[in-house]
Amino acid sequence: MAHGTRSLFRRFSADWIRFDRNELAGSFGDIGTDLPLILAMIPAAGLDLPSVFILFGAVQILTGILYGLPMPMQPLKAMAVLVITERLSGDVLAGGGLAIGLMMLVLSLSGALSWLSRAIPLGVVRGIQFGLGLSLVSLALKTYVPAEGGAGYALAAVAFVLTLVFWGNRRFPAALFVIGLGALYALIGNPGIFSSFTEVKIALPVLQAPALSDIWTGLLVLALPQLPLSLSNSVFATERTLKDLYPERKISIRKIGVTYSLANMILPFFRAIPVCHGCGGLAGHYAFGARTGGSVILYGAMYLLIGLFFSSAANDILQVFPKPVLGVVLFFEALILLRFIADVARSRRELTIALIVAALSFTLPQGFLIGLLVGVALSYASRRFRILDEHLAR
């Protein structure tokens, strides 16, 4: 009996958290989306780099332990864009993070999230995933790959070929070669940049509660615009992606909502960046080899150690890492999301709805909200009145 229990524990532990080259490779699967947003938000909102990195790393580690899956936390994208473009203060950002954390907690505990997940058709969720995949492809090809001119295109081409050659290789994971290529390129262009890691300086985050006025302002200008994207991508699409990649794991949408909310009820008190789950991050870690929470723990440990000991050098080092390499990582992350649409391809109605939702999500401001609403309306109307069925039959 004792032997059987030990065997079960060993198997459970290996399935839950592993540290090997594949988990290490997968840990770079979401870096292309996270790092640019983090580095842009810190100066825009006047944030403290050590606090941001330490807390961002800590929530990754906790999520990896709690879920035992490659399910990282990401910066809230709508909030990030608003903070960067409008130069909103760190105080307002903290207020917005706390506000959306409280809203998501109410939705989770009240059962509203569970009801919504049952009410929203699969084709709509697939459309949201496809729209996010298109957004990532566009970001990769229009912003990251061209960032360094001809040399950047050549670097991206080499990284692309390396990824194709080693795609799915568990012995020689592609991401290790791709990230290594980027580090080598940065070192050649800036020979002394990595020497700054020899300067160890301990830093700790500072506790500071958001003011009521900042919470109210953050609710209006940040939390409300963020909520539709969080519901569609961070909650509904993430739950669907978990079912796609890990059908044997039964993770409730309520749990996803609660961990989302709790993270954002803690981080604002340290002036850290609000975060969410995301199907893109999950797909990215999985695409590059991760299968357990080990990849997220390794990913978080990188941020945590940099924030604690090397924050004075972190910004310079991260700024010189070549964006074309991050673009290739983004591109393959997007492919995982794009291919999920295949399971609605047999139904002309569901595929049409998914493509409409994707097009709206990709092209319009607040497109994820508009796509979600239009997709649900079309789905239920077509079932009741056969609108799409009659049109597609012609």
Walk me through this protein's architecture.
- Helix 13 crosses helix 16.
- With 394 residues, the protein is an all-alpha fold.
- The chain has a two-stranded antiparallel ribbon.
- The chain has one domain.
- It is built from 19 helices and 2 strands.
- Helix content is 74%, strand content 1%.
- About 2% of the residues have low confidence.
- It is globular and about 65 Å long.
- The chain starts with a helix and ends with a helix.
Instruction: Work out the count of structural domains.
Output: 1
Largest β sheet strand count, sense and barrel closure = 2 strands, antiparallel
Taking all Cα atoms into account, the compactness measure Rg is: 21 Å
Average pLDDT value? Answer: 83
Share in β-strands: under 5%
